[in-house]
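Pipeline run #58 for the internal structure catalog. This entry was flagged by the ingest filter as a single-chain record with no existing model, so it goes straight to prediction. Upstream metadata was stripped on purpose; only the residue string is passed forward. Reviewer on rotation: M.T. Logging verbosity set to normal.
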Amino acid sequence: MKTLIVHAHPEPDSLNGSLKDLAVSTLEAAGHEVRVSDLYAMGWKAVVDASDYGPAASSPLQVARDSGRAFETGTLTPDVLAEQEKLLWAETIIFQFPLWWYSMPAILKGWVDRVFTYRFAYGVGEHSATKYGERYGEGTLAGRRALLSVTVGGPEGHYAARGINGPIDDLLFPIQHGVLFYPGIEVLPPFVLHGTDRMGAEEYAVAAKAWEQRLLTLESTEPIPFRRQNFGDYEIPSLHLKEGLESANRTGFGLHVRG
């Protein structure tokens, strides 16, 4: 298995850094190929601007159109091209990051903004009376699997169904469904560690063991059963879920998960 780890934490000796290192050693010991994009160590540029697109940039800048033209003409900057090549190489992508302000760190969002360009991660496929492009289960990155490995400072109860911060699955939905499933990646259930601000050596040992087990079962783990856009569950072109497909009393984000 070919695995890309995208790591986003500024401190190499952090819990996130340890989990990243453990993932590398565990997967390599199991015979897998591993590449790492350590965004802070790389000095990753987190903001989109005209310099990303070279001669394909327009004035005024039109990010979607210009990024697509730069992708098609091979004029994206080398750092973006390198990350796109890693994604095409990978069979599995692990994202290692802390939950900051209910989302991913800015540097990781900037990686998505710059790497997931038009005509690469979105804006692909036909638009017709029966198909609304290739996305949500189809697309350039279809056939790959992704896993979020997330550290959370607060206790698990704060992120439960009635917890004040909201369910962790809801907080991660924009990343798992909107960023990863959109260009076709199948998303595995996340690995979430809670209460990490107060984690001691004994708690880390337990967490590390659980992380190793998740890593060694990546290939056999069933992905989250998100509904695919063009396979009969949605009306086209409205893209509303067809009546009667939802489970009883299910609303919100949960509507877009089968079962």
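catalog note: The chain has a mean pLDDT of 96.
catalog note: The longest strand covers residues 92-98.
status: ready for reviewer M.T.
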